[in-house]
C-alpha cells in the first residue's frame, strides 16, 4: 500500500482502542467476537458455495446475493486481524502503512456493499412489476456489467483517501477511537491542515448516504406498485420477495449512517457508544445477511439443508 512519508510525519505507529473500561475482560469479549466472525465467514462462504454448485440458483437474485456475500467477506477479513490482536492479545499498535491499507479496504468494501444493496433494490421492481419477463430483463451479462461498474465506482470513490492521509503531518496524537482504522478517525490525529480530508471524507459519506436515499425511493415505487395489485394474496407474495432486501438495507445503513453522523456533527461523543456502533457496523451485516436470506429464501434454505443432510449421511 502507501508508505507514510517520513518527511511529513513524525509518527509511524497508531494505537487502536478496545472497549473503554473493559480492558481487563478483553479476552472474554474476544470469545463472542470470534464466534460472530466465524459464523459470518462460514455463512457467507456457504452462501457462495451453494449458489455456485446449484444450477437452479443461477438466477439474477442469487448472482446479486453472491456479490453481497463477497462484500461481506471483504469487510470481515479487512477488520478481523486488528480485532483479534486487540481482544485476544491486547496488542493495540498498528503501523501507519497497515492502518492506511485497512481504512482503504474497509471503506472500499463498504462502498461495494452499499452499491450491491442499491442494485438489489432496483432488482425488486421487475420482480414485482413484470415477473414473467424478469429473467429476460436481467440477464447474466447485464448483472455482471452492473456489478463491475458499481464495484469500480466504489473503488475509485475511496481511492483518494489513502493519498489524502499520506500528505498529512502527524505529531503527538496517536490514539484512534475504534478497533480498526477509519479515514475520519485517522485524519483527526493530524497536526497539519486536514480540510481536504474533511470535505472529501464528507463527500464520500454523502455518496454512500445517497445510496440509502435512492434505495428508499426505489422501495417507495415498489410499494406503490404492490398496492396497485388487486389481489391481497398477490400483494403479500410481492412484498415477501423484497422483505429480505429491506432487512439487509436496515442492518447495513442504520449503524453506518449513525456512525458517520456522530463523527462529522456530534460535539459530545460517548466513546463506548461509538465503538459499539462501529463494531456492529462491521460484524452485524456480515453475520446477519446469510441468516436473513437463508430464512426468507426457501430455495437457499432447502439447498443448504440438502447439503448438510448429504454430509451427515
Give an account of the 3D structure.
The chain is mainly alpha-helical and 313 residues long. It contains eleven helices and two strands; from the N terminus they run βααβααααααααα. The protein has helices at 26-53, 60-89, 96-129, 134-137, 140-158, 160-166, 183-187, 195-227, 232-265, 271-296, 298-312, and strands spanning 13-15, 93-95. It has a two-stranded antiparallel sheet. The longest helix has 34 residues, at 96-129. Mean pLDDT is 81; it is low at 6-11.
Distance between the termini: 47 Å
Output the structural class. Answer: mainly alpha
Cα shape:
globular
Task: Please mark out the parts with pLDDT under 50 across 5 or more consecutive residues, or reply none.
Answer: 6-11
Mean pLDDT across all residues, rounded? 81
The radius of gyration over CA amounts to: 21 Å
Largest sheet: 2 strands, antiparallel
- Measured as a percent range, the helix fraction is over 70%
Number of strands: 2
Order of helices and strands: EHHEHHHHHHHHH
Strand content: under 5%
Q: How are the strands of the largest sheet arranged?
A: 1-2
- Total helices: the number is 11
GO cellular component, one term: plasma membrane
Function: Putative odorant or sperm cell receptor.
GO molecular function, one term: G protein-coupled receptor activity
Protein name: G-protein coupled receptors family 1 profile domain-containing protein
Amino acid at each position: 500500500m502507501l508508505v507514510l512519508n517520513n518527511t511529513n510525519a513524525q509518527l509511524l505507529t497508531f494505537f487502536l482502542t478496545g472497549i473503554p473500561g473493559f480492558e481487563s475482560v478483553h479476552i472474554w469479549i474476544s470469545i463472542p467476537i470470534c464466534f460472530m466472525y466465524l459464523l459470518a465467514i462460514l455463512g457467507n462462504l456457504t452462501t457462495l458455495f451453494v449458489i455456485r454448485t446449484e444450477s437452479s440458483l443461477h438466477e439474477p437474485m442469487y448472482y446479486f446475493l453472491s456479490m453481497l456475500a463477497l462484500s461481506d467477506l471483504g469487510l470481515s477479513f479487512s477488520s478481523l486481524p486488528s480485532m483479534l490482536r486487540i481482544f485476544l492479545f491486547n496488542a493495540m499498535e498498528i503501523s501507519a502503512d497497515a492502518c492506511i491499507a485497512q481504512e482503504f479496504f474497509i471503506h472500499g468494501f463498504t462502498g461495494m456493499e452499499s452499491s450491491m444493496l442499491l442494485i438489489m433494490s432496483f432488482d425488486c421492481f421487475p420482480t414485482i412489476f413484470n415477473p414473467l419477463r424478469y429473467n429476460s430483463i436481467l440477464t447474466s451479462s447485464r448483472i455482471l456489467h452492473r456489478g463491475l461498474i458499481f464495484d469500480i465506482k466504489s473503488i475509485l470513490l475511496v481511492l483518494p483517501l489513502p493519498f489524502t492521509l499520506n500528505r498529512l503531518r502527524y505529531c503527538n496524537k496517536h490514539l484512534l477511537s475504534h478497533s480498526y482504522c477509519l479515514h475520519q478517525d485517522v485524519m483527526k490525529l493530524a497536526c497539519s491542515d486536514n480540510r481536504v480530508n474533511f470535505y472529501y471524507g464528507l463527500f464520500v459519506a454523502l455518496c454512500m448516504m445517497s445510496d440509502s436515499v435512492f434505495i428508499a425511493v426505489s422501495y417507495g415505487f415498489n410499494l406503490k406498485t404492490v398496492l396497485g395489485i388487486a389481489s391481497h394474496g398477490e400483494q403479500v407474495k410481492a412484498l415477501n420477495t423484497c422483505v429480505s432486501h429491506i432487512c439487509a438495507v436496515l442492518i447495513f445503513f442504520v449503524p453506518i449512517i449513525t456512525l458517520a453522523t456522530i463523527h462529522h456533527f456530534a460535539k459530545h461523543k460517548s466513546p463506548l457508544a461509538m465503538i459499539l456502533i462501529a463494531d456492529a457496523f462491521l460484524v452485524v451485516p456480515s453475520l446477519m445477511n446469510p441468516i436473513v436470506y437463508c430464512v426468507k429464501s426457501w430455495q437457499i434454505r432447502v439447498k443448504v439443508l440438502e447439503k448438510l443432510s448429504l454430509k451427515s449421511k
